[in-house]
């Protein structure tokens, strides 16, 4: 067996079963992709900016399916409109897709499909956080990071930071790994332990969970399925960079740091005692690539893992 086939075997299989256009308040439409996989029974998602970023598993032709079937599961080019009859050709926009005659797989050509080989795609791998994204929690920065990722992918350049955006092309892989994989119920217990004095790392350990049991390999399979090869990854987490790379298939060509908004703009972003402790623990105990600003005024500890933030990987 070659090294290549061993690696491929070890990768989870991710299959996109449906995609739909969602108009958003962020500006551009997004294309929400729902994935199944052979590792867990969770519905992981890819929030895709750019109609032309195509899931190979979704677009491949299936035996006996009609053009209507393909449109219903989202395997169409261009835009749907009332009365449209072909998934593979959008007559109004003059777009069409080609397929391999034998296998039925999408023949990705640059007139209809994003070139994930030469382009560097702006990507965020995000783990679910009900409290931070839905219940306005000021214990963590997940909601802020999620919004910021969407804005950065939509824009060509963020004015204040100078960060080059995705100009409407990019992906947020949304993994259902609530509470770094321990689930919401256990995360709520961890919060009570935190109110009793533990930090986010100690709380997981006290509950007999790993500090971070997440496996990002499903995210890797999803990105590869979307035809993406070179990514600019929005993260401060060195584990994500390490886990997401797959030699010959997926490379992180740049890390784009996510500096908390409140650190750069005093009156914006999340300001709470809890988030200061949370970010401090990530820097000091989880090796996150963020440099603590002088304005962070909670008690100091030794911080052996603190790194200056850098965009080079
Ligand atoms: N167990 C536990 N999980 C938490 C806590 N606070 C947030 N989380 C979870 O931590 C995860 C945050 O993950 P991400 O946003 O992907 O970020 P990250 O690993 O911090 O890395 P970045 O890419 O730098 O943001 C989510 O699954 C949250 O639900 C906590 O106090 N305890
Ligand atoms: Zn969170």
Describe the structure.
The chain is an alpha/beta fold. Among the domains are: 23-43 and 116-177 and 214-285, GTP cyclohydrolase II (Rossmann fold); 54-113, no CATH class. The protein has 11 helices and 11 strands. It has helices at residues 3-10, 56-59, 67-73, 130-133, 142-154, 184-195, 200-206, 217-225, 238-244, 261-264, 273-285, and strands at residues 14-22, 30-37, 44-49, 89-90, 95-96, 98-99, 106-107, 120-127, 170-175, 230-234, 251-256. The protein has a 7-stranded mixed β-sheet, with helices on both faces. Helix 6 crosses helix 7. It starts with a helix and ends in a 28-residue tail after the last helix. The model is unreliable at 296-313 (pLDDT under 50). The structure holds guanosine-5'-triphosphate and zinc ion. Zinc ion binds at residues 129, 131-132, 140, 142. The site of zinc ion has 5 residues, from helix 4.
Helix/strand layout:
Layout: H1 3-10, E1 14-22, E2 30-37, E3 44-49, H2 56-59, H3 67-73, E4 89-90, E5 95-96, E6 98-99, E7 106-107, E8 120-127, H4 130-133, H5 142-154, E9 170-175, H6 184-195, H7 200-206, H8 217-225, E10 230-234, H9 238-244, E11 251-256, H10 261-264, H11 273-285
Parallel strand pairs: 8-9, 8-10, 10-11
Antiparallel strand pairs: 1-2, 2-3, 3-9, 4-5, 6-7
Helix pairs in contact: 6-7
This protein binds guanosine-5'-triphosphate (GTP) and zinc ion.
Zinc ion (ZN) is lined by residues 129, 131-132, 140, 142.
Please give a handful of descriptors for the protein shown.
GTP cyclohydrolase II activity; GTP-binding; 313 residues; binds zinc ion; GTP binding; globular; two-stranded antiparallel ribbon; 11 helices; alpha/beta; 28% helix; disordered C terminus; 11 strands; riboflavin biosynthesis; binds guanosine-5'-triphosphate; single chain; 7-stranded mixed β-sheet; Rossmann fold
């Amino acid at each position: 067996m070659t090294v290549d086939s061993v690696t491929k075997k070890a990768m989870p299989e991710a299959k996109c079963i449906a995609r739909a256009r969602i108009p958003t308040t962020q500006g551009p439409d997004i294309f929400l992709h729902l994935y199944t996989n052979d590792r867990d029974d969770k519905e992981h998602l890819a929030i895709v900016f750019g109609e032309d970023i195509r899931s190979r598993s979704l677009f491949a032709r299936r035996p006996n399916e009609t053009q209507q079937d393909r449109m219903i599961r989202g395997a169409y080019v261009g835009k749907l409109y009332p009365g449209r009859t072909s998934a593979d050709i959008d007559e109004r926009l003059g777009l069409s897709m080609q397929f391999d005659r034998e296998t039925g797989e999408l023949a990705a050509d640059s007139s209809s499909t994003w070139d994930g080989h030469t382009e560097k795609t702006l990507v965020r791998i995000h783990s679910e956080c009900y409290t931070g994204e839905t219940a306005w929690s000021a214990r963590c920065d997940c909601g802020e990071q999620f919004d910021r990722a969407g804005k950065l992918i939509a824009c060509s350049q963020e004015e204040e930071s100078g960060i080059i955006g995705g100009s409407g092309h990019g992906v947020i892989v949304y993994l259902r790994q609530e509470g770094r994989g321990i689930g919401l119920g256990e995360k709520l217990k961890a919060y009570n332990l935190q109110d009793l004095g533990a930090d986010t790392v100690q709380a997981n350990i006290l509950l007999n969970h790993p500090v971070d049991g997440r496996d990002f390999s499903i995210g890797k399979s999803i990105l590869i399925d979307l035809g993406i090869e070179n990514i600019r990854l929005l993260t401060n987490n060195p584990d994500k960079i390490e886990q997401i790379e797959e030699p010959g298939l997926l490379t992180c060509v740049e890390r784009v740091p996510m500096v908390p908004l409140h650190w750069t703009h005093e009156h914006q972003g999340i300001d709470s005692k809890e988030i200061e402790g949370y970010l401090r623990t990530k820097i000091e105990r989880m090796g996150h690539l963020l440099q603590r600003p002088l304005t962070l005024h909670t008690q100091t500890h030794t911080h052996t893992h603190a790194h200056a933030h850098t965009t080079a990987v």
